[in-house]
């Protein structure tokens, strides 16, 4: 079955470009489009896409609020891929904090767009570029540092979190640590539970905000 994608952007040319790139792939199907975040919830409920490619800045409802609504109200919600013009935009960071799973620049090459959709759809790694890592570290707080200290991660869990923060998939982490994928999945689940994180994105943000992982 192909990965299904909903495109959300207020610029018709951007949607058309993304559709052309994605529909050229045999394993990706664009199932719908929306021009504003306000239209996302009914479309997600009706179309059940695997991925929503979400613009950040839109006139009625921006991608941050739309992301929050999707994750809060939709059972088994889709993955959210933030699509934006500026990589150091604080709106992007806020969207990731709201629960988006990855980040893509509108000027990305077709191959990068396809890779981003596949990566996010598979759900085992993150698109977390250097510019966003820097923003996360700048948002660091004593509360974030204290929360990570209280989590009491084991040495192996700490190693897994560092590799997650580098955007590595479970398979890549397993190869790096020379362990099985199921072992990595178990460690990832434990890290999320100890940090009180809903998903990998929140865990990685906690790692950068606490200073546990440095940007770069």
Q: What would you note in describing this structure?
A:
- One of its GO terms (biological process) is regulation of DNA-templated transcription.
- The protein has two domains: 1-125, Response regulator (Rossmann fold, 3-Layer(aba) Sandwich), CATH 3.40.50; 139-208, Orthogonal Bundle (Arc Repressor Mutant, subunit A), CATH 1.10.10.
- It has helices spanning 12-23, 40-47, 63-73, 90-98, 110-122, 130-138, 142-151, 155-165, 170-177, 181-195, 200-209; strands at 3-8, 28-34, 51-55, 79-84, 102-105.
- Helix 4 (90-98) links the parallel strand 4 (79-84) and strand 5.
- With 216 residues, the protein is an alpha/beta fold.
- Strands 2-1-3-4-5 form a five-stranded parallel beta sheet, sandwiched between helices.
- The protein contains eleven helices and five strands, in the order E-H-E-H-E-H-E-H-E-H-H-H-H-H-H-H.
- The longest helix has 15 residues, at 181-195.
Question: How many discrete structural domains?
Answer: 2
Instruction: Please give the CATH architecture of the largest domain.
Output: 3-Layer(aba) Sandwich
Shape: globular
Content of β-strand: 5-15%
Q: Could you give the order of the helices and strands?
A: EHEHEHEHEHHHHHHH
Q: Helical residue percent?
A: 40-55%
Strand order of the largest sheet: 2-1-3-4-5
According to CATH, the fold-level topology of the largest domain is: Rossmann fold
CATH class of the largest domain: Alpha Beta
Q: Which consecutive residue ranges, at least 5 long each, have pLDDT under 50?
A: none
Radius of gyration: 17 Å
Helix segment count?
Answer: 11
CATH H-level superfamily of the largest domain: Response regulator
- The CA-CA distance between the termini, in Å, is 37 Å
Largest sheet: 5 strands, parallel
Q: For the residues shown, what is the average pLDDT?
A: 88
Number of strands: 5
Structural class: alpha/beta
């Amino acid at each position: 079955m192909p990965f299904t994608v909903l495109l959300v952007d207020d610029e018709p040319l951007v949607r058309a470009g993304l559709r052309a790139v994605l529909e050229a792939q045999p394993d990706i199907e664009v199932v719908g489009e929306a021009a504003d975040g306000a239209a996302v919830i009914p479309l997600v409920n009706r179309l059940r896409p695997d991925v929503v490619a979400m613009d950040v800045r839109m006139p009625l409802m921006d991608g941050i609020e739309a992301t929050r609504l999707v994750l809060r109200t939709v059972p088994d919600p889709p993955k959210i891929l933030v699509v934006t013009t500026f990589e150091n935009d604080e709106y992007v960071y806020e969207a990731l904090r709201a629960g988006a799973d990855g980040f893509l620049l509108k000027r990305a090459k077709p191959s990068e767009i396809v890779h981003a959709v596949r990566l996010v759809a598979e759900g085992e790694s993150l698109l977390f570029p250097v510019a966003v890592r820097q923003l996360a570290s700048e948002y660091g707080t004593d509360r974030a540092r204290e929360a990570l200290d209280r989590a009491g991660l084991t040495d192996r869990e700490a190693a897994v979190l560092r590799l997650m923060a580098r955007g590595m998939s479970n398979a890549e982490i397993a190869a790096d640590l020379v362990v099985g994928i199921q072992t990595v999945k178990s460690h990832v689940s434990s890290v999320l539970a100890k940090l009180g994180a809903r998903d990998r994105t929140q865990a990685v943000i906690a790692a950068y905000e606490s200073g546990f992982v440095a940007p770069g």
